[in-house]
Design a protein that fits this description.
globular, eight-stranded parallel β-barrel, alpha/beta, 14 helices
């Protein structure tokens, strides 16, 4: 396994991380999910991704069971919360702690920062970041980050609003793949800023749940190698079978830093398919936007906004 430093922290995390969403799917039974997680940890993967809303909590519950019998001590556990208000974020975090059966979570991230209003809600006095800071002080979590998949400009705006509030994130999660470089690119716009700020970079959607592969331009190993070649701390990949886990291990074992020619060849193969975002529907549609379908997960709007409306 390759281990990398997580941004400005001293944490050593595996270059590949296990995506949590797949572990709670109805097509993956609980025992298989537990086997995948424990086999991953036994093979050197220590980074476990998750979210409060994944599969109505099943993903967190399954990882919680997998972490028994000493596996918690060998893992770096991350989850995400959707709440934008302090009240809702606190509630979701406590639910995640119960499901994961842990005393603390290594990394908690604000999930789906996909609207320009999200940073303002998160950093309101009664916003979600206030809840996470209090939870960190109470020992419920160690590090704070945010995620999003829609537009690199929103990521940059979140970083700007955080800076205005005197806050620096430990991590940022975003799509990084062979097609992102061609369309509304997180790699080109956000990645350099994170490197400069020494914020831990979590790559996701290296294959976009297999959608990128439907372009018939790249293989799974090429997708993983491309993402691993970027200055990522972790490349999170969905794993719903032992075979896919073995594929992830094989990608790490065969990885070498890509030459400019190798990288250019991959980008050349994907240029035509990627030009309009066709194979990155998380950028161009609302299909992947769980909080758009479930706005109640966000919690109440800031009090001062509600006061304006009722004054």
């Amino acid at each position: 396994m390759i281990y990398r430093t997580l941004g400005s922290t001293a944490e050593k995390v595996s270059a590949i991380g296990v995506g949590g969403w797949h572990l709670g799917l109805k097509t993956v039974d609980e025992q298989l999910a537990i086997r995948i997680v424990r086999s991953a940890i036994d093979g050197g993967i220590n980074f476990l991704d998750n979210c409060w809303d994944y599969n109505d909590g099943a993903s967190e519950s399954r990882i919680g069971k997998a972490l028994r019998d000493g596996y918690r001590d060998r893992s770096f556990v991350m989850t995400k919360i959707d709440g934008r208000s302090k009240k809702e974020a606190t509630k979701q975090l406590d639910e995640s702690l119960r499901r994961l059966q842990v005393d603390y979570i290594d990394l908690v991230q604000h999930h789906e920062i996909i609207r320009f209003e999200d940073p303002h809600r998160v950093f309101d006095d009664q916003g979600a970041n206030a809840a996470l800071i209090e939870a960190r002080q109470a020992g419920k979590l160690r590090y704070i980050g945010f995620t999003g998949h829609k537009d690199p400009r929103i990521h940059l705006y979140m970083l700007a609003i955080a800076n205005e509030n005197g806050f620096k994130f430990d991590t940022v999660q975003m799509p990084l793949n062979v097609m992102d470089a061609h369309y509304r690119s997180f790699e080109k716009q956000v990645l350099p800023e994170l490197v400069k700020l020494k914020i831990g970079i979590l790559g996701m959607k290296s294959m976009a749940n297999g959608i990128l592969l439907k372009s018939n331009t790249v293989t799974p190993i090429e997708c993983l190698h491309y993402a691993l070649n970027l200055p990522t701390s972790v490349v999170i990949t969905g794993i719903d079978s032992v075979e896919i886990l073995e594929q992830a291990f094989a990608a790490v074992e065969s990885f070498h830093p890509l030459s400019n020619d190798e990288r250019d060849a991959l980008l050349a193969k994907t240029h035509g398919a990627a030009a309009k975002g066709q194979f990155e529907p998380f950028k161009t549609s609302s299909i992947f936007d769980g909080t758009a379908e479930n706005p109640k997960w966000l919690g109440d709007e800031p009090p001062e906004v509600r006061e304006l409306l009722t004054a």
